[in-house]
Design goal:
Order of helices and strands of chain B: HHHHHHHH
Distance between the termini of chain A: 19 Å
Mean pLDDT of chain A: 91
Largest sheet of chain A: 12 strands, antiparallel, barrel
Order of helices and strands of chain A: HEEEEEHEEEEEEEEH
Mean pLDDT of chain B: 78
CATH architecture of the largest domain in chain B: Orthogonal Bundle
Low-confidence stretches of chain A: none
Largest interface: A-B, 58 and 50 residues
CATH topology of the largest domain in chain B: Cytochrome Bc1 Complex, Chain D, domain 2
Strand content of chain A: over 45%
Oligomer: heterodimer
Number of helices of chain B: 8
Number of helices of chain A: 3
Strand content of chain B: under 5%
Shape of chain A: globular
Structural class of chain A: mainly beta
């Protein structure tokens, strides 16, 4: 079989698998949009996600930013992700804004009170990027005022490191992220944070399958913002957001998240509506391996 | 734009590489004989965890709820009846079925990360106890667990 035929079968299988899963998988995701918890993707599973952010803009045009995310559980201690970002600024244009490659590693073998995860990301995004997947340094609302044609000319190659800490207590998940970002040109380290807490609406599972059972809903809140840079650390000229979050883990591997987000100071976008839909494909790695001649 | 395409290409290649590496590692794990050392994690359970009682032991719905959780999260690796799984060891082996509920809960919560089993503390504690109830309800499979027997059956 030729390679092109194999690729065609691969894409067809991916579509088929997404609809007719061999197992009645149900994702169990926390509702955060920005904050990371300590849990990695299950090995061999692929999660395909689409996220959308509508944001208001004082003194300029509102915009709609979005990203696709492909999250793969390489092992039980390593998850790798590819992001493709874009945005539409109303009365301006739609532009592709860049790519990100992210890796998360779980260094400890066992579960503890506080569980660290190390995060390493390389991103190549242009100045028109508005997805606000994280807030760092002195990111402020007025950064988004430049027209797309001008902003996209600036290319940023950035290395982003995070220390993710996560704990579970009486059904609650509490996660804290500490962010360190280095633009690979001659710019100082920038810092940021994100914290989140969430809990399923019911802790026990139902004895029958259901879509609207309370245990399928996870509610909580997150807060995130910038902390300046190496030479100007602190809250001066930084933006901060608070957001209630809700996730609905729908049977068959789908998760829907929604988060109305409120800016906490004059440097922040006043309001953002963020939502995302994710679909987890169970056993994806084995399927690919089989297709290309290996054993699953 | 050319640079951008190059960056996308590099990222896709790295993703593909990591996928292939991970799958090779899984194959390497699978050819290891699956005798009793597949259950060695159960011997590491602290005494305090082993002594914990299942708070849902008397819950009449716990087994049914645990079965649904098992189908959603476990059967892909361990097989639909807790055995004959593609990646995980049989859960109907005496090592598992004779283990106290607290020991199963401990392994389930912390996973066996280096051997590919993820942490399941993302499930609320009550749901993990429901899973333990279901696992214990499966009973012992009488065929002895020797060599690759469990993996290949």
């Amino acid at each position: 079989m030729s390679w092109s035929s194999r690729w065609f079968i691969f894409v067809a299988l991916l579509a088929f698998y997404s609809v007719f899963l061999p197992y009645p998988l149900q994702a169990q995701e926390n509702p955060y949009i920005v904050t990371y918890d300590q849990f990695l993707e299950e090995p061999g599973n692929l999660e395909v996600e689409y996220f959308s952010t509508y944001q208001t803009q004082r003194g300029g045009n509102n915009s709609h930013a979005y990203w696709m995310e492909f999250e793969y559980g390489a092992t039980a201690w390593w998850t790798t992700e590819l992001y493709l970002d874009g945005q539409t600024t109303f009365h301006d244009s739609t532009v592709f804004t860049g790519v990100r490659w992210e890796n998360r590693f779980r260094p400890l073998r066992r579960e503890h009170w506080i569980n660290p995860v190390l995060y390493v990301e390389y991103e190549r995004v242009n100045g028109a990027d508005k997805i606000l997947k994280e807030i760092e340094g002195h990111d402020v609302e007025s950064d988004a005022l430049a027209p797309n044609a001008e902003a996209r000319r600036q290319i940023n190659n950035e290395l982003e490191l995070k220390l993710i800490l996560g704990s579970n207590f009486k059904g609650w998940n509490v996660s804290e992220n500490f962010l360190f970002v280095k633009n690979l040109t001659n710019e100082p380290w920038e810092f940021g944070y994100a914290v989140g807490a969430s809990r399923p609406l019911a802790l026990k599972a139902s004895s029958t399958r259901c879509s609207f059972c309370p245990q399928n809903f996870v509610a909580g809140a997150e807060m995130y913002g910038g902390l300046g840079d190496r030479y100007n650390f602190g809250l001066h000229e930084t933006s901060h957001y608070f957001a209630p979050v809700l996730a609905w883990n729908i049977p068959a591997g789908w998760t829907l998240r929604v988060s109305p987000t409120f800016g906490l100071n004059d440097n922040s976008h006043k309001f953002m509506l963020r939502w995302g839909i994710a679909h987890e494909i169970s056993g994806f790695g084995g399927m690919v391996k089989q297709l290309f001649g290996g054993r699953s | 734009m050319t640079r951008c395409s190059l960056a996308v290409g590099v990222c896709v290649a790295l993703m593909a590489g990591s996928l292939a590496l991970a799958q090779n590692q899984k194959v390497a794990e699978k050819v290891q004989p699956r005798h009793s050392h597949s259950y060695s994690e159960l011997t590491k359970v602290p005494e305090s965890a082993r002594a914990r009682q299942n708070p849902l032991q008397q819950d009449p719905e716990a087994v049914a709820a645990g079965k649904i959780l098992f189908e959603d999260h476990c059967q892909e690796c361990h097989g639909s009846s807790g055995q004959n799984g593609k990646h995980g060891p049989s859960l109907r082996a005496p090592e598992v079925q004779n283990a106290p509920p607290g020991a199963l809960f401990w392994v389930l919560s912390g996973g066996v990360i280096r051997k590919g089993m993820p942490v399941w503390s993302k499930l609320p504690e009550a749901q993990r106890w429901q899973l333990v109830r279901y696992l214990k309800s499966l009973g012992i499979d009488e065929v002895p667990v020797v060599g690759n027997a469990v993996a290949d059956r």
